[in-house]
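User: structure tokens for this one?
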Amino acid sequence: MEKIKYKLELVVFVCGAMTMVLELVAARVLSPYVGSKKSGKCFR
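Assistant:
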């Protein structure tokens, strides 16, 4: 039973990390089009 618990925790952690990475990438891709002041184009 302990092995299943750790496997579930690992799956939840990895899915959460992947979701966060996807959100960060999407924010970087969309930032020039939605007017974020922190995009790279404003500082060039």
